[in-house]
What we know:
There is one protein chain. Helix content is 36%, strand content 23%. The chain contains 17 helices and 19 strands. Strand 17 and strand 18 (469-472) form a beta hairpin. Helix 8 packs across helix 10. The longest helix is centred in the middle third of the chain and has 17 residues, at 159-175. It is globular, with a radius of gyration of 23 Å.
Amino acid sequence: MVLDDLVSTAANVAATSSRNEKIDLLAQALRQTSPGEIEAAVGFLVGWPRQGRIGVGGATAYGLDVAPAPEPTLTVRDVDDAIERVRAITGTGSVQARAEILTDLLARATSDEQVFIRRIFTGEMRHGALEGVVAAAVAKAAGVPATVVRRATMLSGDLCATARIALTEGRDGLERIGLTVLRPVLPMLASTAETVQDALTFDGPASVEWKLDGIRIQAHRDGDEVRVFSRNGNDLTDRLPGVVTVVHGLPVRAVVLDGEAIGLDESERPYAFQDTMSGTGRRTEAFGAVPFFFDVLHLDGEDLLDLPLVERLDALERVAGHRRIRSTVTEDAAEAQRFLDSALAAGHEGIMVKDLSSPYQAGRRGKAWRKVKPAKTFDLVVLAAEWGHGRRRGWLSNLHLGALDDNGTPVMVGKTFKGMTDALLAWQTEKLQSIKEREEGITVWVRPDLVVEIELEGVQTSTRYPGGIALRFARLLRYRDDKTAADADTLESLRALQP
């Protein structure tokens, strides 16, 4: 496939706000891709090459002044091969060697292709084609149900590879993809409910569980080997030895568990989230981060994903009952409220309310799981920041915040400068400048990579921001290093706060 075709597709996708039109454009491009280029093309479209992080910084990529080629000749495979060569270079002189490969590639690229390539190499690709939209396009191009593609992606953890299988082997190939122990599965996500009563809308009783403010983990064991993954699939095994010890001691041969790792003090109260996160970097058991589990996805050769939650919880009790997150089963709002009160009294942040009949729908933020937290807190994407004045002169202070629209694209819903210490301002200024995309007056626009937890009193209808709402009395609580932009809360969840 000629790279120029993919560049044109990306531009057209960025130019439309219609999800259906995005899907149509992407599907058309994917149908024209050769089997050997599918994984690379999908990686370029979602802005994350199939090889992962490339290792070329903005200073290198944008510091190369190379005249563009007059006509498009590059293929998708040419760029993919260059990425392979760059990633293979290590050691002394690697920066110069990588720059030489990139220089040669840019010399063969047109002006538009140069922009595209630089963004791929530096992780700055932004055109609205997030993974959910591309997955839907893969389904359309392959002529298979979107649910089948989503499930295969969930189990493989690799949209690029899933796309290749969908387009070359069809539904039969996708349905052969199963859960593989020691390979992370995309986690199931929760929507937000404002009150216990709002959350209890299932037919019959629900599982009501303490919501711990820890690190979301997925623990895998196959015989004597244990691996621990973050919600984003990063390997945390060496950083959470306490979790490894617990999983090693369970009476199973093979298991995949979903849960939280959290630090507890001598009185069994949880450490602050920041302290738990910093403890993962100490590579020692002394900090005491321990796991508590709320679901089991695989047990001794049997996948449990499609079983109702009530059956998965029975299996969890058998293998890890002493490590289950505290829970109760009820449909009574008063009882659930008392359980929420007990969670808060123990130092936790709220409760989860779950449909007992629901399967494990990985990667989905549906209504089967609902989180209830007394404080109105939301995870939002940092889109930009403004240079401060007065005592904040020289620091990036006022954050521009976005929630995800129906396409999974961050859309601005407000600003905040509250809740920032001097230390945070200093760190924030350096970090945001490292991911700067452009600067307009006092505003520095950044790649939408960072997620912050924001506390607010509510929202109101507003035409000031693209999201159609504005945050009321928003305050920064913390940066969520464990989350990506795709994990942020949605416009829909914020709009639910409107009076």
